[in-house]
Amino acid sequence: MLRLALRPPFAVAPVLAALAAHAVPGVELADPAAARHTRSVPAPHGPAVVAVHLTAEHVDATVHAHPADEAAVVALVRRWLDLDADPAAVAAVLGADPLLGPLVAARPGLRVLGHVDGFEAAAVTVLGQQVSLAAARTFAGRLVAAYGGPAPLGLRAFPRPAVIAAAAPEELRAAVGITGARARTLIALAVACADGLDLRPGQDPAEVRRRLLALPGIGPWTADYLALRALGDRDALPATDLVLRRALGNPPAADVVGQAERWRPLRAYAVTHLWTAQAYL
User: What is the rounded average pLDDT for all residues in the chain?
Assistant: First the structure.
């Protein structure tokens, strides 16, 4: 077991709720009551599994991987759970805001939940377009069952882009239970990722957004959501998001952008606080 340091406080309950709400069947095991979450993750020598136990002061991680991959998996976990965040810096930007201030005070140390796999994040987001979160998880579980591979502890690894890129659209549609148009979008996304579209932190968000929007069936909401979840852009703002707009009183997207100007350069933390207040706790 490895003890991963963080800057307290760490708002554990909202993170566990979000992880459980988005858990992909076969890939993840959520246990919010025990403050634990287990999932497969990609690693240089093949799929690994990490089990994390979250506390307000630290995160304990148990890694099941090739010995040479332990450091890479730990780095993934740190980005996934935003363990290098500085809660004091976030509070300095958002704490005095009339809307965000009470939320920051209620959940000090709330993290922006990232992802361990940019392609998985993008694929599940595509599967979740215009359907409920529960339906998206069902579709993702079917995708994993049909195209994923084995991982430690009996879990499954999310399929790699090249595998989905090689699938026939009708075969994919039937296996997952999605529309033909959604299957074609998923394949186009997989082809782009197999050809070098990198959905990891450190990329230029504007360039990634441009490339995503060039794909069929991917619009601004998907691109902006992935900037927040996959790219780690701490100023990302999915202005068309329905939950975010509801939290702000249902203004048009242009007004969301204007209202969020005062939250720069940490709009992703503002969005996460508003999502959390609306959707989880």
Answer: 97
**Alpha-carbon dihedral of residues 159, 227, 48, 109, nearest 10 degrees?**
-150
Distance (Å, rounded) from C-alpha 188 to C-alpha 219? 14
Q: Domains of the chain, with CATH numbers? A: 2-106 (3.30.310.20), 118-219 (1.10.340.30)
Has residue 162 got a pLDDT over 90?
Answer: yes
By residue count, the chain amounts to 281
User: Distance between CA 143 and CA 58 in Å, rounded?
Assistant: 34
Contact status, residue 281 vs residue 14, Cβ threshold 8 Å: yes
CB atoms within 10 A of CB 169: 16
Number of alpha helices (DSSP H) and beta strands (DSSP E) in the chain? 14, 7
Tokens of residue 202, six digits: 């450190």
Distance of CA 25 to the CA centre of its chain: 15
pLDDT, mean of residues 190-214: 97
Tokens of 22: 């988005």
* Conformation bin of residue 21: beta by default, left when phi > 0, alpha when psi is -120 to 50: alpha
Q: Is the pTM of this model over 0.90?
A: yes
Residues 6+ apart with CB under 8 A from 119: 158, 160, 161, 189, 190, 193, 199
Above 60 in pLDDT, residue 248? yes
According to DSSP, the β-strands at 2-5 and 28-31 are unpaired
Residues in contact with 191: Cβ distance below 8 Å, sequence separation at least 6, in sequence order = 161, 165
pLDDT grade for 95, boundaries at 50, 70 and 90: very high
